[in-house]
Design brief:
The complex is a heterodimer of chains A (about 280) and B (about 120). By secondary structure, chain A is mainly α. Chain A is built from 10 helices and no strands. Chain A has 2 domains: about 120 residues, no CATH class; about 130 residues, no CATH class. In chain B, strand 3 and strand 4 form a beta hairpin. The chains are: A mainly alpha (about 280), B alpha+beta (about 120).
């Protein structure tokens, strides 16, 4: 949770290039499963462009928040965070184009719409990867920086949302999510909800992973469950619904199917949210 | 503030669980039932396009749904036939597609029906 290190502000050009390279690596690592998924390529051209544009627009405040809450120095100006967010998006674009070219997935027969769509779709997950790589994989230490305070309640929720978004974005474009939902009975769906909640709670509060919260003397276990796990899961459900809508997976589905598909996607989302709280 | 959010989340969760429970008890599983309806034929390159809508009124999702369109009525017999396959038609949901014909469906009489389907 509260990490005590922060990267030294790059003063030289070499340090800046190293940081960019690290961000590039992070973008490739986190976006690679998506870049090599067939449905992602198809979504590039079949997806509603307005929904894709909305995703990109909403990605910017997400990256701003990641920059602010994610382990870098807490006193950075808004402008610094904004520059960071934009830089990570640019790095993600470059990483996506590079990988798509090398893999031969972009060929001259494709329309501009198709190519732009394929790259644009990779920007948000790639940029999250670049941002995480910069804050988590850095080995710069500044012993004079004090520990910064653990995140506020809003910060915790934000971190959970980012973690959920990351895993959900990787899984949502695939056909398997919808297929699993089609095959599930109602009892499977209810069981999956309970299982997701249990795992979320256990990860962070029960199992003693490094970085887990130590419960304070005045903290009620039920209160913790209600305020963090329950709210976190509701947040994950909302985000899963949004992602599925963005990829057009909900079009034409009955309300029951929409619910089922959302619950299926919320399962990796919940794990992502719990993992993010441990890591960030 | 945290408790307000916790309360809202609890309500949402209970609503979802209640809805699913109701669905499970009131509408138990059964076979799929796909019905298909054709729209008006439209001229297109190479002939005519007929849009169809397939809706699943049954209790299970249908996969690999075969939609068949036939032109022609007795005594002339079947003049032309066109097929399309839908990957999934989830229960309670509808899917659209198009059948293409070389001859004008308005002149020959069009019948649209569902062939076979599989379990997903």
């Amino acid at each position: 949770m509260g990490k005590s290190r922060a990267p030294v502000r790059p003063e030289t050009r070499t340090q800046l290039l190293i940081e960019l390279a690290r961000a590039f690596g992070g973008a490739v690592i986190f976006a690679l499963p998506l870049l090599m998924t067939m449905e992602m390529w198809q979504l590039g051209y079949s997806m509603d462009p307005l929904r894709l544009a909305l995703l990109l627009l909403l990605g910017l405040p997400l990256l701003l928040g990641l920059s602010h809450y994610g382990g870098l120095r807490p006193n950075r100006r808004f402008v610094d965070n904004l520059a960071d967010a934009l830089a990570t998006m640019l790095v993600a674009v470059i990483a996506a184009v590079a990988v798509l070219l090398v893999l031969g997935l972009v060929d001259p027969g494709m329309s501009v719409r198709e190519m732009v769509g394929m790259v644009a779709l990779q920007v948000v997950p790639g940029a999250i990867g670049a941002a995480l790589a910069r804050s988590q994989l850095s080995d710069d230490e500044d012993p004079q920086e004090p520990d910064f305070d653990p995140p506020s309640y809003a910060g915790e929720l934000f971190i959970m949302a980012a973690g959920a978004l990351f895993l959900a974005l990787n899984v949502a474009p695939t056909e398997e999510v919808v297929l699993i939902a089609f095959r599930m009975s109602v009892w499977n769906q209810l069981g999956l909800m309970a299982f997701s909640l249990a795992i979320m709670h256990a990860f962070v509060y029960g199992l003693g992973f490094t970085g887990t919260e130590t419960t304070h003397a005045d903290d009620h276990p039920v209160g913790t469950f209600l305020r963090f796990t329950l709210v976190g899961y509701a947040l994950v459900l909302a985000m899963s619904l949004y992602i599925l809508w963005t990829f057009g997976r909900l079009d034409g589905l009955s309300p029951h199917q929409v619910t089922a598909t959302t619950i299926v996607l919320a399962f990796p989302g919940a794990i992502g949210a719990a993992a993010a709280r441990l890591i960030l | 503030m945290e408790w307000v959010l916790a309360g809202l989340s609890g309500v949402l969760l209970l609503a979802v669980v209640g809805y699913l429970g109701y669905e499970g008890l009131a509408h138990p599983d059964g076979p799929p039932q796909v019905v298909v309806r054709a729209g008006e034929p439209r001229p297109a390159a190479g002939g005519f396009l007929v849009e169809f809508t397939a809706r699943n009124d049954g209790r299970t999702t249908a996969a690999n749904v075969q939609v068949i369109g036939e032109l022609g009525t007795p005594p002339d017999g079947i003049v032309e036939r066109s097929e399309a396959v839908l990957d999934y038609v989830p229960k309670g949901s509808s899917r659209k597609g198009w059948l293409s014909f070389r001859r004008d469906p308005a002149r020959h009489g069009l019948t649209v029906m569902v062939g076979g389907q599989t379990q997903p």
